[in-house]
Amino acid sequence: MKFIDIGANMTDPMFRGLYRGKQAHPDDLALVLKRAHEAGVQKILITGTNLQDSKEAIEAIENNEDAKGFLYSTVGCHPTRCSEFEAYQDGPQAYYDQLLKVATSSATVVAIGECGLDYDRLHFCDKETQKKYFEMQFDLAEKTQLPMFLHNRNTGSDFYDLVKANRHKFKHGVVHSFTGSLEEMKMLIDLDLYIGVNGCSMKTAENLEVVKAIPRDKLMIETDAPWCDIRPTHASFAHLKNVSSEEMKLYAPPSKKKEKFEMGCMVKSRNEPCTMGLVLHAVASICNVDPNELANVIWNNTCTVFDTLE
């Protein structure tokens, strides 16, 4: 099976061995990417969470020959980082202009985002600031003609209302790391959006019912690494029982705590793109469909939205 991880935070310092500013172990990013490739991950979309991360992702890709055709990036500003627009030295318009410049600077940029609304973490950025600069990023999508990589957490109708009002500005969009209700999912599907699923999307029995109901032609999968791994406490964990031992070696290699780091092993609680196969198998089991057939459907869905990946 082959996979495209539509959301991985590969600029996170954890992949360089840094945790809260402290070096816990050596940089092992190259081995993380090697494990992903060996596990069938053909392409990884690095999530751009703000202007600086977006720049760093593109520079890292363009300065690494091995990354060509393997790593891609999104460009945007996460809702919890939207205060950066107003804190920017030359003001919000200059921040927007820089995002536009970066988004059009490289063929490795495949989407605008991560952008949206997040009311679970208002201590980072208030609602009005989030809404103001989420709306501004629809204009980025319109100008670049790129799809949108969207984020939504506990926003009532605000997210839906803003997307609906601006839906004419972009052709395709995916609401990634979806954890919403069945009703919310159906409303987003009615806006002709795709739904991205990862470990956080499958924590509860209610989550599983939502995943089961996502139309196959609107489904994508992701890891959201280094976050959102599938854990034994998750409802989806029981759906991994049929994964073969050979596949488990690829999708869940041996891991050690960061304090006992061993080069070549995964780090416990640090998710990686190599676990894409676990997400696929969990979704296939939940939906009672053949994993290979589902992998092909999801691959085609992903290439439809991010058409520069084909």
- Given helix and strand content, the structural type is alpha/beta
SS elements, strand count: 12
Q: Tell me about the biggest sheet?
A: 8 strands, parallel
Radius of gyration from the alpha-carbon trace, in angstroms: 18 Å
What's the CATH topology label? Answer: TIM Barrel
Mean pLDDT: 97
Strand order of the largest sheet: 1-4-5-6-7-8-9-10
Strand content: 15-25%
Q: Can you name the CATH architecture?
A: Alpha-Beta Barrel
CATH superfamily annotation: Metal-dependent hydrolases
Shape annotation: globular
CATH class equals: Alpha Beta
Count of individual domains: 1
- Measured as a percent range, the helix fraction is 25-40%
Unreliable spans: none
Task: Give helix and strand order, one letter per element, not per position.
Answer: EEEHEHEHHEHEHEHEHEHEEHH
Count of alpha and pi helical runs? 11
State the separation between the terminal residues, measured CA to CA. Answer: 16 Å
Question: Your description of this structure?
Answer:
The protein is globular. It has eleven helices and twelve strands. Helix 4 packs parallel to helix 5. The chain starts with a strand and ends in a 5-residue tail after the last helix. It has an eight-stranded parallel sheet. It has a two-stranded antiparallel ribbon with strand order 2-3. It has 310 residues and is of the alpha/beta class. The longest helix has 18 residues, at 127-144. The chain has one domain: TIM Barrel. A divalent metal cation 1 binds at residues 114, 224. Keywords: Hydrolase, Metal-binding, Nuclease.
